[in-house]
Amino acid sequence: QGFGMIQIGTLQILPSNPHMKTLKSKIKRDLSGTTIYDEGGKRGRICLVGEKASWEKDGKKVHSKLIDEEGFKKLFHLDGWNDVVIIAKGNHIRHYMNGKLILDFTDNDPDLALLNGVLALQLHAGKPMWVEYKNLRFKSLP
Description:
Strand content: over 45%
Number of helices: 1
Helix content: under 10%
Structural class: mainly beta
Number of strands: 10
């Protein structure tokens, strides 16, 4: 029932403030819940799973669909491990699950894009739940 998040480009807003400004890769078992979310920013859900999209000065543009609801349900392992690969290079984020590209986002807004920071793992607050991570690997890209 729970969901985990991988935060990309996380920056603490102020040293005295525990809230972060980050792009969150939320991983849930449905299309509406798996997103790139602009935490602490102005844009909210900036890319949904299944979209190849970009954020331009005038807002979000969806360029194509990568997977539909039925395809995502078949791909997602509810009671098992999901292999997730996130490639974040500059303003471009690609999210793969179990070998399939499920989200492709480019942030072309120079005033809002997060281009650096740290990586963080998070369990969403709420009722009792758990999320497990294993075999984490990080690679710097040229």
